[in-house]
Structures are given as C-alpha cells and as structure tokens.
Description:
Distance between the termini: 15 Å
Largest sheet: 6 strands, mixed
Structural class: alpha/beta
Strand content: 15-25%
Helix content: 40-55%
CATH class of the largest domain: Alpha Beta
Radius of gyration: 18 Å
Order of helices and strands: EHHHHHEHHEHEEHEHEEHHEHE
Oligomer: single chain
Amino acid sequence: xxxxxxxxxxxxxxxxxxxxxxxxxxxxxxxxxxxxxxxxxxxxxxxxxxxxxxxxxxxxxxxxxxxxxxxxxxxxxxxxxxxxxxxxxxxxxxxxxxxxxxxxxxxxxxxxxxxxxxxxxxxxxxxxxxxxxxxxxxxxxxxxxxxxxxxxxxxxxxxxxxxxxxxxxxxxxxxxxxxxxxxxxxxxxxxxxxxxxxxxxxxxxxxxxxxxxxxxxxxxxxxxxxxxxxxxxxxxxxxxxxxxxxxxxxxxxxxxxxxxxxxxxxxxxxxxxxxxxxxxxxxxxxxxxxxxx
Length: 293
C-alpha cells in the first residue's frame, strides 16, 4: 500500500517551487491563484526572497503548503494514495491531497493558522529544541519536573524528540537533558513554542475558522498528528486539526501505525527529504521503501 506524506515547517528553501512554476501549466495556474487568495505575491518570496522572508511564519507555512499540494497535483493519475499523513503543517497538505479540503479552503486555513500562530509567538517569547540520543520517556520526565512551560512537541523518530516551551524552560531542560546523557540538546531557530500550551490563543482562533470550513469525506484515510490514528470522519478530522496546535506531533507513532495497517511504500511530497530520513529510521525493522515524489 502507498502512503503519501507531506512535510511541515522547516523544509523551506529559497527557490522552492520555481521549477514547478516554470515547467507545469497546472502548477503556474495554482501558484497564481494562491497569489490572489493570499493578497500578496508569495511566489516572489518563494522563488527569489531572502532566508529572513521564509522564516516568517505567515510566509513559511503557506509556501510549504503550496509546494507540496501543487507538486501532488502535477503527479496526475500517478497520484494514487491508499493513505496520507503530514507532519504538523503538512497535515493540511495531506487533507487537500485526499480531497477532504479544496485547494482554496486549505490555503485559507493555512494562512489563518500561520497568522494565529504568529500572534501567539509575539504574545510570549518562546522556542523549541531538538533532543537526540535520549529515551523519550526520560525526556518527558525531565520536562514534567521543570517549573516552567516545557513539553515534548515532536516525536520525530526513536531517539529524536523536539521539546517546546518558554525561553527559560527550554534552557533549563537542555541543561538537564544533556546531564542525563543526551548526545545533543540543540535550541532551534523558530518563531515560538509550537505544539505546546503557549499556542492556546492560536488554537482558539483557528478553531473558529476550521469549524466554519466544509470538510468532505476523504478519498483515503488520513493519519493525524494528535492521535496517530486512521481517520475518515470529517468531523473527527476537524477536531484533531484543532487539537494539533497544542498537542505533540506523534510522528513516530503515526508512521508505526501506518506500517501496521499495511503501508509498504512511503512517498514524500514537498520540499526536501526530511521525512524520508525519519521514516527510514522508524521503519528500519520493517520491509518498507521510502522515496520522494
């Protein structure tokens, strides 16, 4: 069975999507439609902007979404998913790919999500850190023992976990985690504490936009970050999307569940190849192939 997966924030790079724009009439039409929907020419920032441009949440998230969704559209009849999933932001790309959302509605929700998250980041300075080489349960224990907001945010692969929280909380956690034997505890250059309680204002704001958007029954199941479970009910999909903003991304568990449900081929659709590396680690004891679109 084929599982198509879509990357999230962090996969961006200057020039992303330009080859699609230049080579595919379908892609050019969708990019121009996106410029109109967003009210600014995001294509100019994607194709020839600066690193600082692409680090802005309200640019980064729509840009990655557009690259992934438009790439999927250019695959034509060869795009035949048995299941889909997306890492954080990538879940919105997955939901357009499996027809639960239209392209226009998906882009509008991603723009609303980015705007809400940007405001939450500005309200309280916060950050994230990547933890490598320490048992997930030990990381959870250390985070829970700290009298600051600091929580596991992304379960990326066995032994690779991202934590999220206040600036002070992340500093304390990194010190204690390194003392506990982690190979690395590396602060990340991100706008805020994504997938943590500090995103609660964004969750509340986005929930209204999601509830006011029509979701179709999907053509195949989506495995969602907040639960790591197979979902086809549009109402459940909505609730999990809302929960995602403050809940951890259960990527390791999600991929394991997809494999348990029969996934044998994983195809990453979007900029970069980060998910291919993570899936190869998660599925190293299973007979799965991993590739890019």
